[in-house]
Amino acid sequence: DGGITQSPKYLFRKEGQNVTLSCEQNLNHDAMYWYRQDPGQGLRLIYYSQIVNDFQKGDIAEGYSVSREKKESFPLTVTSAQKNPTAFYLCASSMGSSGGGNEQFFGPGTRLTVL
Amino acid sequence: AQTVTQSQPEMSVQEAETVTLSCTYDTSENNYYLFWYKQPPSRQMILVIRQEAYKQQNATENRFSVNFQKAAKSFSLKISDSQLGDTAMYFCARGSQGNLIFGKGTKLSVKP
What we know:
The structure holds two protein chains of two kinds.
Chain A: E1 4-7, E2 10-13, E3 19-25, E4 31-38, E5 42-51, E6 54-57, E7 64-66, E8 76-78, E9 87-94, E10 105-106, E11 110-114
Parallel strand pairs in A: 2-11
Antiparallel strand pairs in A: 1-3, 3-8, 4-5, 4-9, 5-6, 7-8, 9-10, 9-11
Chain B: E1 4-5, E2 10-14, E3 19-21, E4 24-25, E5 33-39, E6 46-52, E7 60-61, E8 64-69, E9 74-79, E10 88-96, E11 99-102, E12 106-111
Parallel strand pairs in B: 2-12
Antiparallel strand pairs in B: 1-4, 3-9, 5-6, 5-10, 7-8, 8-9, 10-11, 10-12
């Protein structure tokens, strides 16, 4: 089955630690995205990548980093610089630009809790 | 900042009835795309319907249809014959350059 996988489903982190969230897709999509979802805030874009080895900051990139070394993978690292990292994180992918009408397909999400 | 506004944080509807969710947006572009996504309690985001701005005909997908008013920058979602499985968060989104701008969502509860 084609789709997007995110792991782990639940993640706990101590303050001051970096943590990496995994996102893999086998849809052969060029574009990938990371969103953060907080109650009452909708989805806010952290980073996106339209092609391998290239990515752009979204609205709330501070305290996060990404890499796009392979088309299938777009890991997100939450660094200790992120002041309030407890949230639900969603990864998505699309064949082309969503500005051009391409549907984004979403993974099941990772719930990150900072202890 | 270009925004997407959903003015109804929560709504409820009786099973089999019709409900309309509101969405307005800002843009300076002439052609763009609009989307409605559904997030059920499982939290899996699913595309409900998509509209291209230059197409005047409103998009429909089975029980889901939109009322697209380009001049008013309004993009409402109508759900007919509501079913219990329609209970979810609904997000309106606008395509912008390489990504989507989402509204804050409307929580819809369908009551038996």
